Amino acid sequence: MRRVSVRNLAAHKIRLFLTVFSVVLGTSFVAGSIVFTGSISNAFTSIFDKTARGVAVQVAPRNPSEMAATGAQISPGVPMPVVEQLRANRDRLGYDRLAVNYTGLVAVAAADGKALQTGNAPSIGTTYLPPGQAVAEGENVILPGGRGPVRAGEVAINSTAAEKAGLHVGSTTKVVAGQGTAGPQEVTVVGLLDWPFEVGGFVTVAFDEQTARHLFSDGNHAGTVTLSARPGVTDGELQQRVKNLIGPTLLKVQTGAEVRQESKDSINRFLQIFTYILLAFAGIGIIVGTFIIYNTFAMIVAQRNRELALLRAVGASQGQVSRSVLTEAFIVGLVGAVVGLIAGIGLAAGLRAVAIATTGLPDGGLLITPSAVIGTLLVGIVVTMLSAWLPARRAARVAPVEAMRSTMAEPRSLRRRTIAGSIIGAVAIAITVAAAMRQGVGPALGVGVGAILLIVAVVLAAPALSIPVISVLGVITRPFGKIGQLARTNAGRNPRRTAATAFALTIGLMLVAIIGTLGSTFKATVDESLNTNVKSDFFVTGVNNLPVPPPVLPAIRETPGVAEAVGAGMVVGTIDGKQVRGRAVVGGRLDEMVNYRIVKGVDLTPDGMLVDEPTARTAGWTVGKVLMFTRADGAAVPVPVVGVYERNDAVGPWLLGSTAYDQVMPGPTQMLAGVFVRAAPGVSPVQLQERLTAATAGFLTVQVQTREEFKSAASAMIDQMLGVLYAMLGLALLVAVLGIVNTLALSVVERRQEIGMERAIGMARSQVRRMIYLESVLIAIFGALLGVVLGSGLAVALVRTLREWGIGSPVLPWPLIGQTLVGAAVVGVVAAIWPAIRASRTKPLEAIAGE
């Protein structure tokens, strides 16, 4: 029987190719998803593997969240007395080198004089130390042709940022450091840094130590202190000696390994949701691949019904027949999985290139892990064998004489699976609707459960559903006469095959509808908030997520044509041991710029604060309550809650009055999130924008946007976040198209005699091709309709659960839906090209004679 299996594979090369190809499709999606996911995660992790290399111990202030958790004041850095204490005890501690680093936010001007856009990647100013003084390895390497900065007015920039900015050694440019209160400073690029890691638009600007201390420190504190250990002293020993020397402080003393791990943990928490999404796509890959493989083997075993019956007639048992098919499946699965792994790696490389180009994700190279290899091989082999076993088991149970009457098994009833699918679908809809009526993470997970059950229901009920839908869609084939009628009949002849063929497209377009709806809703929420709540004509914001320097506000007010300008101050403090962030009104009345409705208490007073309804409800900040803010210097500032307003994204969760803001955020710590600007009556918007741009040009980090430009920027950010998801969807749709190609090609093999008879009675080759095209279009549109309906319903339910985050009413992307349905028809034609050509070349007499 093993010899029969091997010879059977060799004797049917076209069928073998199509079967292997189905496994390649399924496993390539799985491999591509796993490799792509692992590569992106590894790219971020590898960044921090290169951090603090050569550092034995680092002394640094605790981050604000750690300080808030202990109820302690936020430290501005490592006190200089501690630095001097460490320097004075070098031999006692047993360290080799000590380096002091000062860091902070920075913006650099490109060759055109405008701030270099980082695409939301970090833009950091740091301290340059010559290799003989630096502790960390690989972070101060100057490329040949340049040198490190040694005096004020000199900087070194990482090479990729310099290339993007059009800068080179010898270029003169401007930088803005910290909060930008000192304004732009003219500097000369004296060297290019060979930085050990790059993240999209990541920018590093290195200054000499004295300049960095002046720009990023109050003069009494250092940013961090790093130490390297002498031979014979372990990192742990040096860490303990440093702790014993400086005693209990607000500082944290970590080994280099602990610094790297802390950085990894922080980015992993940030990427957790992103990782879950990518893993979900890998799961979808397994589902889609399973159906493609199962569909292929179900067709092949059905085609071999007479052959298997003949084996039974000459003495083969049911078990032997099943094992022979499983042997073939193992060989096919192994070969297909290996090829699919290679194809999946190629797909992951393409996706990674697209993601890096469109979203600024880090480039860490492809990561092909043992789990990706083993997982792909297991999926290919196990899924293939399971997919072959079920139809083989059914075929082996058929009596030999009965099976040899026809080349195809009799179709089984759809009644049981349709009833089961209807019941599961009803339960899924009930769960989804119930979840949509509530808000929060729990209901959102409920929608996810409903989605899974709906997919199961579709798998069970889609064959029965395809019969009436294909019949209705058959209207589009009527202009083609009898050819169209044949195509409609072929598409509806085997509902199971039609539903299985369309399933991959259904899943892909379901995700398109969900993601498209979320994107449209997010954009509509931003637009509605601006149109309804904001009365200002211009928005002045910082580039690259930097704050707006406070001196920008008076410069704007002095610009001719400005009727009013109000700043939105950034507030960071501690309340009851927890760090809180909010906004404050600076230099004017907010109600002149933003519409907000007070529901309890009174409007904002200079020494009070307003709270929105969700925050008042969850935090218990009710009218009359006095909140005690703890400043960075440890001082306590009482601020009473004077009013509660309806949730308003233009205002934020809470708002301080101007007097309270000055007390909670002393002058040196004040920063603006932005400035609202209203034009005077009769002033040309174009002219005023030009004046505002000229008035703020000297600050470098400031941009002036109209309402429409602000909306476009927000939309672009949403599109950027969805870019990777759309890239993954492209992979899903590609696999769906290839799955249709494969199924149609197998269908042509199955119907070889039928097509030969049609050719014999006068059907032209062009008519055969047209029939296959139309059949494929009907199947593709059926899958698209099913996916769009499912995806739109689930997206609406999901958006409803996000109301507490300020997400507005769901907005269906009708243009995208229309394009999707038209695209499905195009997909049907493209997918049918090769099968149609192959069918049209069928020789009538050979086909009628059979094998």
TrEMBL record:
<feature type="domain" description="MacB-like periplasmic core">
    <location>
        <begin position="17"/>
        <end position="244"/>
    </location>
</feature>
<feature type="domain" description="ABC3 transporter permease C-terminal">
    <location>
        <begin position="280"/>
        <end position="398"/>
    </location>
</feature>
<feature type="transmembrane region" description="Helical">
    <location>
        <begin position="498"/>
        <end position="519"/>
    </location>
</feature>
<dbReference type="InterPro" id="IPR003838">
    <property type="entry name" value="ABC3_permease_C"/>
</dbReference>
<feature type="transmembrane region" description="Helical">
    <location>
        <begin position="367"/>
        <end position="390"/>
    </location>
</feature>
<keyword id="KW-0472">Membrane</keyword>
<feature type="domain" description="ABC3 transporter permease C-terminal">
    <location>
        <begin position="727"/>
        <end position="844"/>
    </location>
</feature>
<feature type="transmembrane region" description="Helical">
    <location>
        <begin position="770"/>
        <end position="796"/>
    </location>
</feature>
<feature type="transmembrane region" description="Helical">
    <location>
        <begin position="724"/>
        <end position="749"/>
    </location>
</feature>
<keyword id="KW-1133">Transmembrane helix</keyword>
<dbReference type="Pfam" id="PF12704">
    <property type="entry name" value="MacB_PCD"/>
</dbReference>
<protein>
    <submittedName>
        <fullName>FtsX-like permease family protein</fullName>
    </submittedName>
</protein>
<dbReference type="Pfam" id="PF02687">
    <property type="entry name" value="FtsX"/>
</dbReference>
<comment type="similarity">
    <text>Belongs to the ABC-4 integral membrane protein family.</text>
</comment>
<dbReference type="InterPro" id="IPR050250">
    <property type="entry name" value="Macrolide_Exporter_MacB"/>
</dbReference>
<feature type="transmembrane region" description="Helical">
    <location>
        <begin position="273"/>
        <end position="302"/>
    </location>
</feature>
<keyword id="KW-0812">Transmembrane</keyword>
<feature type="transmembrane region" description="Helical">
    <location>
        <begin position="418"/>
        <end position="437"/>
    </location>
</feature>
<dbReference type="InterPro" id="IPR025857">
    <property type="entry name" value="MacB_PCD"/>
</dbReference>
<feature type="transmembrane region" description="Helical">
    <location>
        <begin position="329"/>
        <end position="355"/>
    </location>
</feature>
<feature type="transmembrane region" description="Helical">
    <location>
        <begin position="449"/>
        <end position="477"/>
    </location>
</feature>
<keyword id="KW-1003">Cell membrane</keyword>
<feature type="transmembrane region" description="Helical">
    <location>
        <begin position="816"/>
        <end position="837"/>
    </location>
</feature>
<feature type="domain" description="MacB-like periplasmic core">
    <location>
        <begin position="498"/>
        <end position="694"/>
    </location>
</feature>
